[in-house]
Amino acid sequence: MRVIVAAVGLCAGLLIGGAPAVAADAKGGEAKPPAKDLVLRGDAKCTSCHDEADAPEQLAIGKTKHGTRADQRTPSCTNCHGDSVKHEKEAGRGSGKGPAPDVAFGKKSKNTAEERNQQCLNCHQGGKRIHWQSGVHANRDVTCASCHKIHDGHDKVRGKDTQTEVCFTCHKEQRNQATRPSHHPVIEGKMTCSSCHDVHSDNPKMMVRGSTNDTCYTCHMEKRGPFVHSHQPVTEDCGICHNPHGTTAANLLKSRPPFLCQSCHDGSGHHGQSAALPANRAAIGTSTLGTVARGCLNCHTNIHGSNSTQDATAGTRFTR
Ligand code: HEC
Ligand code: HEC
Ligand code: HEC
Ligand code: HEC
Ligand code: HEC
Ligand code: HEC
Ligand code: HEC
Ligand code: HEC
Ligand code: HEC
Ligand code: HEC
């Protein structure tokens, strides 16, 4: 890193293609030509120190969308890190590190999560992030930079194969569930967490659509119906029976039938007897015995809803 003896900077945002900073090598005392922007518009006031020798990874930002200099909306260093005038003049001089930049995003940052996020929201409040501030992540002090890597060009959270790595650093329970025998093909890289979640939103459970069901229907349309006979818990919330992250029971079911079914349909009547042999089976008819030890789904095949009109009674029982 070169040490700057005198650096006179203007507002970086106004500069295109070079700052009039006069840099001189401290040891040689040799006059240097005015520092040039390296990767972002108006970055010279920063890259005079944070140059290739010092910070090759930081400069990789030039290869990201933020580095498209032809796009007038893209930021300079100062749009994210603040004007940082004191830092620019004094950092790295003397014994200490000198004043920090106005806004830093690393672990040592003294800025609140809100202050950091505001830098990004100055440009990105629109679109999906309109309701960012009332979402769960914002309220738990998760920052944009907790997920997005800005400098190095590898924004893992937006890659199909790499997104889960980022989410799992905080969401351990979902990591466990994702490897259970029945799971959506997320760890296989065919789907991502963001197939179902919009992590910038304030929707319930941050679903991409307003509700769990509307989100599931985007891929499982056939479960939407409308059905002539619908099963109440299905229309209410798919999550009543399924855990979409992963389960030990097949079909992402929270528990196996008949236990799943019997959590709502009590043990009296024919359905209660199918889990075990009834004690007085000699005294009861074969029609009842027909259900003994058989899965409810052997007969109730259309558990998400049925369209049978042939026989109204059977139809309502999801048996066809
Ligand atoms: C005079 C040289 C110099 C200039 C000019 C300079 N910096 Fe720095 N910067 C430093 C030094 C030295 C450090 C401390 C490095 C360390 O902590 O290892 C630093 C650290 C940083 C950090 C990391 C802070 C942290 O807490 O992790 C950021 C961000 C930063 N500078 C941004 C900028 C920006 C933006 C500009 C332009 C407005 C700029 N710097 C201009 C010398 C400079
Ligand atoms: C779009 C916003 C944005 C812009 C523009 C930006 N930075 Fe950063 N900077 C960040 C974030 C966020 C981090 C935290 C690490 C990360 O996400 O990569 C960071 C980290 C840093 C660090 C500390 C690196 C570390 O890990 O300790 C330095 C130094 C730095 N930036 C300098 C600069 C310089 C110099 C420029 C201009 C060439 C610049 N930044 C432009 C957002 C930005
Ligand atoms: C000065 C305005 C500005 C600031 C500040 C800014 N961005 Fe951006 N950002 C842009 C522009 C412009 C694009 C390119 C948009 C496009 O191509 O549609 C962009 C693109 C992005 C993208 C998509 C990149 C891609 O490859 O498609 C992400 C993610 C992003 N910004 C995150 C951030 C984060 C996080 C911060 C704060 C640390 C931030 N931005 C600060 C203007 C800004
Ligand atoms: C919990 C992780 C996470 C956090 C926190 C987060 N993002 Fe994102 N962001 C993502 C993911 C995943 C995508 C890609 C999928 C999508 O668009 O939902 C994305 C996409 C983006 C994009 C590009 C697509 C678009 O919507 O234009 C921008 C810009 C962006 N984020 C900005 C931000 C800003 C600004 C913040 C902070 C206010 C932020 N993000 C916070 C995970 C996150
Ligand atoms: C197939 C859709 C789907 C996918 C893919 C998905 N989720 Fe979810 N997630 C949901 C639903 C639905 C809920 C709400 C469950 C409920 O109401 O009990 C939820 C809830 C959550 C919750 C809140 C849990 C709670 O107890 O409140 C977290 C955290 C979460 N998901 C993280 C993730 C992560 C991380 C990934 C990627 C590894 C992911 N999800 C992938 C559908 C999905
Ligand atoms: C820096 C940590 C962190 C990262 C990274 C992170 N989250 Fe979160 N997330 C949280 C915290 C904290 C909560 C609050 C609830 C809790 O404690 O689980 C939360 C809550 C959620 C919820 C529940 C929302 C609700 O309404 O209850 C979902 C869904 C979620 N995160 C999805 C994701 C996904 C998907 C990713 C990756 C793209 C991700 N998160 C990355 C920290 C994080
Ligand atoms: C982005 C598309 C998508 C969304 C959204 C989605 N799924 Fe899936 N679902 C899939 C894919 C892909 C499979 C795997 C199909 C296969 O393996 O043949 C699947 C399989 C399933 C299975 C069968 C699992 C097994 O072990 O056979 C169930 C149950 C399921 N999804 C329920 C849900 C629920 C509930 C939701 C809403 C919370 C949901 N899905 C949202 C794409 C999606
Ligand atoms: C009352 C409990 C229950 C509810 C609520 C429920 N399901 Fe299911 N689901 C099941 C059962 C039981 C199976 C296994 C069916 C079988 O083996 O024939 C299943 C299987 C599935 C399958 C994989 C097999 C197939 O039929 O494609 C998908 C996908 C599915 N459900 C999606 C959904 C969606 C989407 C919702 C919400 C609209 C939902 N489920 C609500 C009980 C339920
Ligand atoms: C969360 C509670 C819940 C779960 C779990 C559940 N059901 Fe239901 N089921 C209901 C409700 C509520 C009704 C509507 C009852 C009514 O209309 O009297 C219903 C209706 C039915 C009916 C039609 C009853 C009629 O009179 O037409 C059948 C058959 C049925 N369920 C079978 C099952 C099976 C099989 C399972 C397991 C795969 C199951 N249910 C799981 C709550 C549940
Ligand atoms: C051998 C086929 C068969 C099996 C196995 C079966 N059912 Fe049924 N179920 C039927 C038929 C047929 C009807 C409609 C005629 C009737 O009411 O007896 C019915 C009716 C119902 C009803 C509505 C009437 C009532 O009694 O409330 C519910 C609820 C029900 N079954 C739940 C279940 C559950 C839960 C299981 C598993 C524990 C199960 N069934 C296993 C065939 C079966």
TrEMBL record:
<feature type="domain" description="Doubled CXXCH motif">
    <location>
        <begin position="231"/>
        <end position="267"/>
    </location>
</feature>
<feature type="signal peptide">
    <location>
        <begin position="1"/>
        <end position="23"/>
    </location>
</feature>
<dbReference type="InterPro" id="IPR010177">
    <property type="entry name" value="Paired_CXXCH_1"/>
</dbReference>
<dbReference type="Pfam" id="PF09699">
    <property type="entry name" value="Paired_CXXCH_1"/>
</dbReference>
<dbReference type="InterPro" id="IPR051829">
    <property type="entry name" value="Multiheme_Cytochr_ET"/>
</dbReference>
<feature type="domain" description="Cytochrome c-type protein NrfB-like">
    <location>
        <begin position="77"/>
        <end position="161"/>
    </location>
</feature>
<feature type="domain" description="Doubled CXXCH motif">
    <location>
        <begin position="183"/>
        <end position="224"/>
    </location>
</feature>
<protein>
    <submittedName>
        <fullName>DmsE family decaheme c-type cytochrome</fullName>
    </submittedName>
</protein>
<feature type="region of interest" description="Disordered">
    <location>
        <begin position="62"/>
        <end position="111"/>
    </location>
</feature>
<dbReference type="InterPro" id="IPR020015">
    <property type="entry name" value="Decahaem_cyt-c_DmsE"/>
</dbReference>
<keyword id="KW-0732">Signal</keyword>
<feature type="compositionally biased region" description="Basic and acidic residues">
    <location>
        <begin position="83"/>
        <end position="92"/>
    </location>
</feature>
<dbReference type="Pfam" id="PF22678">
    <property type="entry name" value="Cytochrom_c_NrfB-like"/>
</dbReference>
<dbReference type="InterPro" id="IPR053875">
    <property type="entry name" value="Cytochrom_c_NrfB-like_dom"/>
</dbReference>
<dbReference type="InterPro" id="IPR036280">
    <property type="entry name" value="Multihaem_cyt_sf"/>
</dbReference>
<dbReference type="GO" id="GO:0016491">
    <property type="term" value="F:oxidoreductase activity"/>
</dbReference>
